[in-house]
Write a structure and sequence with these properties.
Layout lengths: L1 E4 L5 H10 L16 H6 L1 H6 L4 E6 L2 E9 L2 H11 L1 H7 L13 H10 L6 H6 L2 E7 L8 H15 L4 E6 L4 H9 L3 E2 L10 E6 L1
Parallel strand pairs: 4-5
Antiparallel strand pairs: 1-2, 2-3, 3-4, 5-7, 6-7
Length: 203
């Protein structure tokens, strides 16, 4: 098993991992018609636009996990508006809000492409960096997540990062437990339509 910087050649694997861990840590393959849609939002842009903070873990079967992030989520949101969302918005239709109750899971994600949800201001002010991490079941429970996180923290600290946050679905109990064990503490933040559990840690 090795941890190394992510490359563009890893994108297919990263998309796949994002999908099979995309239902609160469980396999979301059966939820979405477009298997790359969730990765467009939560994984791929980091590999392509912030490769200095993107790492993968690989074993003899191939890439089995990743950690990606950004030094400052507000600057990142502006960069996505300029360099990432426009091409995707041309490919995916913004669903009719009046039909929200009938949206498919794909349409819910397509809506996010057109209307990204900003992380809460109270979180970003004190913990401006942000990261995502997912590991396939075959490497879970072996300390791989902590090793990936350590690699990311070293890289982030070298970029001047002093505090970072993550957002976790309340349904992802195992994920929340991992971040708590990794030194992240729950943060109080208004929901504003987003039911994520926000956790932060000083670096």
């Amino acid at each position: 098993m090795i941890i190394r910087p992510a490359h563009e050649d890893d994108l297919d694997a990263v998309y796949g991992i994002c999908l099979v861990t995309g239902d609160s840590g469980r396999d979301a393959s059966g939820l979405y018609s477009d298997p790359r849609l969730i990765g467009h939002i939560y994984a791929a842009p980091y590999v392509l636009l912030a490769p200095h903070l993107a790492f993968v873990v690989a074993d003899e079967e191939g890439v089995a996990g990743y950690v990606v992030g950004t030094e400052d989520v507000r600057s990142w949101e502006r960069r996505l508006e300029q360099a990432w969302w426009p091409s995707l918005r041309r490919r995916y239709v913004d669903p009719d809000v009046s039909c929200r109750s009938a949206w498919t899971p794909d349409q819910c994600l397509a809506h996010l492409l057109h209307h990204p949800q900003a992380d809460p201001a109270v979180v970003c002010e004190s913990y401006p960096a942000h990261l995502h991490m997912n590991v396939l079941p075959r490497l879970q429970g072996q300390g791989v997540g902590f090793a990936l996180l350590d690699r990311w923290i070293v890289a982030a600290a070298s970029c001047g990062v002093r505090a970072a946050h993550v957002g976790v679905s309340p349904a992802n109990i195992r994920g929340a437990r991992f971040w708590t064990r990794a030194g992240f503490a729950e943060l109080q933040a208004p929901q504003d339509g987003n039911d994520a559990l926000w956790l932060g840690r000083l670096i």
